[in-house]
Write a structure and sequence with these properties.
Helices cover 49% and strands 6% of the residues. The chain has six helices and two strands. β1, α1 (28-42) and β2 (47-51) form a beta-alpha-beta unit. The protein starts with 5 loop residues before the first strand and ends with a helix.
Length: 156
């Protein structure tokens, strides 16, 4: 039987590799994690397992032992976020209503994925005409910033 190398990628790994000592767990999660651990242990050497999470503290200690390498990707700096917003505006062909440096400063601490989610939120509201105003993009960005900073304040 011929074998080929394989990468098995789990995004949001904390959803299935959650700490088994969680007091709020009803037992089902413990069974899921136990089963996952057994399956990982049975994988042949030509299979590489990669897991991604934004909540590393939620992962079970036994899960961590299955990985030989851990890479932490920090949140972008303000300079990186400013450049990302500039590139996003070039890609879509219009401004987001506020200076990229202002957006980067106000959304400091968010990941690139969250910055993109914010920018797409502004675009959606612009297309839908929410909120209605004369200075549309600026007002929409300000409205979204208020929502996002309230939503992520505990994380930022």
């Amino acid at each position: 039987m011929k074998t080929q190398r394989c990468v098995l990628f789990f995004d949001e790994f904390d959803a299935i590799g959650k700490e088994r000592e969680d007091a709020n767990d009803n037992g089902e999660m413990k069974r899921v994690v136990n089963s996952l651990l057994k399956q990982i242990d049975l994988l042949p050497s030509h299979v590489v397992v990669v897991g991604a999470t934004n909540h590393e503290s939620m992962l079970d200690k036994a899960i961590w032992r299955r990985f030989q390498l851990q890479i932490t990707v920090p949140a972008p700096t303000q300079r990186m976020a400013t450049r990302w917003f500039e590139e996003f505006e070039k890609r879509v062909g219009h401004s987001l209503g506020l200076a990229p440096s202002t957006l980067a400063r106000k959304l400091s601490g968010l990941s690139f994925a969250e910055l993109e989610e914010f920018a797409l939120d502004v675009q959606r509201k612009y297309v839908l005409g929410l909120p209605a105003s004369k200075n549309k993009l600026k007002d929409i960005s300000a409205h979204c910033l208020k929502h996002w900073t309230e939503r992520y304040r505990q994380d930022i």
